[in-house]
Amino acid sequence: MTQPPYPPRPDQPQPPGWGPAPLGGYQGAPGYDPTRPLGARPPDSTNISEFAPPPSRTPILVGLAAVVVAILIAATATLQPGGLFGARPAPASPTPTPSATAALPGQPFATSDGRVEGRWQVVERRWTDEGVQVKVWVAVDRGTLRFSFLAFSNDAAEVVYPAPGADYPGFTAMPIDRGEERDGWLFFPVYRADLTLILANDSGRQISALVVPA
Description:
By secondary structure, the protein is mainly β. It has a domain at 107-212: Sandwich (Immunoglobulin-like). The protein is built from one helix and eight strands; from the N terminus they run αββββββββ. The strands form two sheets. A four-stranded antiparallel beta sheet has the order 1-2-3-6, with no helix packed on it. Strand 7 and strand 8 (206-212) form a beta hairpin.
């Protein structure tokens, strides 16, 4: 039986099974949730902190390095004499430099075997028509000196030996021991010119030489 297109009046009896048709005639698709918003689901909100660079570890590393350096400095100071807060050792006083020894007078000499060493010099000279008077000083620092004297003019090759002079004291021919000094006069009969005076051993072998200016 087809339902009448119009609802019955209230004063008319309603046929059995009759009811008003649903509004719109749409019952919804299967799985439809009327509480869900229509349209595509909006994307999740983005936090700007997600794009920030990762936090730097440099301050942490610098802090750790500073702590390590402080520990090393404290350990080093503790190991030094006097400890970390102890008194520092006094600086070593400079070693005094010995003063230069005053130069000894005379020209040094030594025998060929090194057993005798000493110094000698011409203290004074006096030229005359006959020759030259020479005052000689000799000091022995090592060994015993047995000596002789001879000379030659720089203008001639002739060797001359000393003769007794007029001045006093004459230079004696006795050996000179270590620590002793001796001076005296020698006379050489030569004409006036530069003279080379030779100190020799008792065999006449040259030890040293000095020039006696004219």
